[in-house]
Design brief:
heterodimer; A: 314 residues; 3% strand; B: 432 residues; Rossmann fold; 3 domains; five-stranded parallel beta sheet; 17 strands; globular
Chain lengths: 314, 432
């Protein structure tokens, strides 16, 4: 079996597994998994930029929030249907990521981290500044009756899971396709040795800008999906904490591996969920686990699997 | 709206399983969980999911909400429980985060099998969690003082019967400020939703009293130094109204004192700024002689009721509003009574509805909606209240205290009528 076939089988298998889990997991975990799938889309978007292109952004919450507010505000003020509003969320994320990418890519390394962080902070403060419309930190609810698409009530557990799985599957397949395409390979080349990629004739800046935009739109899709499926948009999602989270998910799951973000997001979710029911110092537990993983599995869970057993993992 | 009419009945996993012909092997694992909640046995405890801010920005409040809730549950159990069943508090930390808040509500409903969810304070967590409560059809009793419930932005499953909301609190202050402190008010508030509520509701209310807000000074939430904002306070200001929150409040007060020196205008603030903070902390000397709104007087007053006394004893709060075991551990006294009163309302509601289990959740909500008068009693030590079943919001007395010799002495108690405003929603018309 070729590596491409193996990769296709793996990605199809993950999606089939997620379908199967819906039928066997208890209701609580089905609800959790729907959340994890949406957040994993965010992590996958982040992974494309960080894991495959080597650009460490500290401002991805801006893209997530752009998608969230792009959907939420248009539903709130223009009474758009969920599908059109979802499209608005994607467009908002596209515009924001294009502008941020255009400006931030004039820098690199630590400066890139700081510039993206500052853009995200400016985005957060903008949401607060226009509190009259955004309701600032308090946020706003997207009512249950509005979250109906083509006759399907997206607040029902089945419909929500199907919608989350659909969003995840599309993004998961897209990422798998991109990273194995010539474009994806060139991103990895840039990550490994930018000067050499430049010398070989690649338009490095254009490639990186494309990566920022795809990453930003995918993060925006996750933000819009979260608002639509869970009925809330708020400035909390634009805070720096929500820029750090996808970094942690990707580091835990495995940067530069397509299944890494899903594994990392699920792992972190349940780590907090279980440890918080044992102790109030659950963030300490999470911190210790993160340190141990960094020491003993520096490439993340999926990264270790690739290193030790499955070198063909894309 | 057509959108509402086109909602098809929710597809259950049972129907999905049938459609896929997955067979009995898979179904046998899933079906027991698909049948909804089994009616609780009469001897089983009433499970109350307590969404508590143990970490994050609300942690100081959460600690005292936790103590008050446990004390209220203990008292209810000592009195024989609810419908003969003991009350069990199942607490989960929401990190004062709306995303985690929604996850916690889901955990209460689908994993712990709680009868209700309860106890949220911070408005953004309420906003983040209420949609899930509505979807999961679990009654969600918040103790937040936000105007979110009465504004109609939430749903029929969300109620706030144990604490008044910010709109009623703020507007009830206007007559006192106008009659006793002055008519020209400068407002200093944090530039986010909580501050905007104060700005909007108080501005309207003071104008109705013949006063005016001469300046509105919004402070960005990330600000750590305030001196540069104070020159914007007009010279003809008679009253400074402040409602700063967070750790920067000590700096705010200190710098305000340095700015005005001995010749200051009257100063009125909301105690939210100084909940869990000792009024005698270094740097707060400038507050001497200023006024504060209090949801419930922190210091035991000369005319202390037996209900206040019993409540303090049960929760473990001394006459200065601090923990009986640690005088430096100051409580969030102006808010935490809401947990106590809400649980007593839940008890009455469950008894009126003859609540037996989650199948009776709608009956519980109807029973609470039917409530109106809540007289001053051991169940309602903060004071009498009127509950509006249509808006799911309680209305009650507000207290204004003056800082005198390092204590908060009660100066004025508003009437309940001062806190009324027109209904903005009728939740009873929403289907369950």
């Amino acid at each position: 079996m070729t590596d491409t076939r193996r990769s296709q089988a793996l990605h199809a298998g993950v999606i089939l597994l997620l379908i199967a889990l819906f039928f066997v997991l208890p209701a609580y975990h089905v609800g959790n998994l729907a959340r994890i799938l949406v957040l994993a889309v965010y992590a996958m978007g982040y992974n494309l930029l960080f894991g495959y292109t080597g650009l460490l952004s500290l401002g991805h919450a801006l893209f997530f929030a752009a998608g969230m507010y792009g959907l939420g505000m248009t539903m709130q003020f223009f009474d758009l249907d969920p599908a059109t509003a979802f499209g608005s969320g994607l467009i908002a994320a596209l515009v924001v990521s294009a502008v941020v990418g255009f400006l931030a890519l004039r820098t690199s390394g630590v400066a890139f981290m700081i510039v993206t962080l500052m853009f995200a902070q400016a985005g957060y403060l903008t949401i607060l500044y226009f509190g009259e419309y955004t309701r600032g930190d308090e946020g706003f609810v997207i009512q249950q009756a509005e979250r109906v698409f083509a006759g399907f009530d997206l607040t029902g557990p089945t419909e929500r899971y199907v919608a989350a799985l659909l969003l995840f599957s599309v993004c998961f397949s897209l990422i798998a396709y991109i990273v194995q395409s010539p474009f994806g390979r060139s991103l990895v080349a840039i990550r490994e040795n930018e000067e050499r990629a430049k010398m070989l004739g690649y338009d490095v800046v254009r490639h990186k800008l494309k990566a920022v935009i795809i990453s930003g739109v995918m993060s925006g899709a996750a933000g819009a999906g979260y608002a639509l499926l869970f009925g809330y948009a708020g400035a909390t999602f634009a805070t720096v904490q929500y820029s750090i989270l996808p970094l942690l998910w990707v580091l835990l799951g495995g940067a530069g591996v397509t299944i890494g973000p899903l594994i990392g997001t699920a792992f972190m979710f349940y780590l907090i969920d279980y440890s918080s029911s044992i102790t109030t110092a659950y963030m300490l537990v999470a911190g210790v686990v993160l340190v141990l993983l960094t020491l003993f599995a520096p490439q993340g869970l999926a990264g270790e699997i690739r290193k030790r057993a499955l070198p063909w993992l894309p | 709206m057509n959108k509402k009419n086109t909602i098809i009945s929710s597809i259950t996993r049972r129907t999905a399983l049938k459609a896929l012909g997955a067979g009995t092997i898979v179904a046998s694992g899933a079906l027991p969980r698909l049948g909804g909640y089994a009616q609780a046995q009469s001897s089983e405890p009433i499970k109350i999911g307590f969404q508590v801010h143990r970490t994050g920005i609300g942690a100081a409040y959460g600690r005292w909400y936790d103590r008050t809730t446990n004390a209220a549950a203990q008292r209810i159990n000592d009195m024989g429980g609810i419908n003969g069943r003991p009350v069990e508090i199942i607490a989960e930390d929401d990190g004062t985060d709306p995303k985690r808040g929604a996850e916690v509500v889901e955990k209460f409903a689908t994993q712990h099998g709680c009868d209700i969810a309860f106890g949220t304070l911070f408005s953004h967590v309420v906003f983040g969690s209420a949609p899930r409560a509505g979807e999961l059809k679990i009654p969600y009793f918040v103790v937040s003082e936000g105007h979110h419930v009465a504004s109609g932005k939430l749903n029929r499953y969300t109620l706030q019967p144990g604490i008044t909301d910010v709109k009623s609190q703020v507007q009830a202050m206007a007559p006192f400020v106008s009659d006793n402190l002055g008519k020209k008010v400068t407002m200093i508030f944090p530039d986010f939703a909580f501050g905007h509520d104060h700005r909007d509701y108080f501005s309207e209310a003071i104008e109705r009293q013949g006063g005016e807000v001469v300046a509105k000074i919004a402070i960005p939430p990330t600000e750590t130094s305030f001196t540069k904002y104070f020159p914007n306070i007009p010279r003809d200001t008679e009253v400074v109204y402040h409602v700063m929150v967070g750790p920067a409040v000590l700096t705010f007060v200190k710098e305000l004192g340095e700015f005005f020196g001995p010749s200051r205008p009257e100063i009125f603030g909301f105690i939210d700024s100084l909940e869990a903070v000792d009024i005698n902390s270094p740097g707060l000397e400038f507050l001497e002689g200023t006024y504060f709104w209090e949801g419930m007087p922190r210091y035991a007053q000369p005319d202390q009721t037996s209900h206040d006394k019993a409540y303090r004893a049960a929760v473990g709060v001394d006459d200065n509003g601090a923990s009986t075991s640690d005088a430096k551990d100051v409580s969030t006294f102006a808010h935490m009574f809401g947990c106590w009163e809400t649980l007593n309302i839940v008890k009455k509601g469950m008894e009126a509805a003859d609540y037996k289990g989650p199948d009776d959740r709608a009956k519980l909500i109807e029973a609470v909606e039917a409530m109106s008068d809540m007289p001053l009693s051991d169940d309602h030590p903060q004071g009498a209240k009127l509950f509006n079943g249509k808006t799911h919001q309680a209305f009650g007395h507000q207290y204004i205290s003056k800082v005198k010799d390092g204590r908060l002495d009660l100066s004025h108690t508003t009437s309940i009528e001062d806190t009324f405003y027109d209904d903005e929603v009728d939740y009873t018309k929403q289907p369950f």
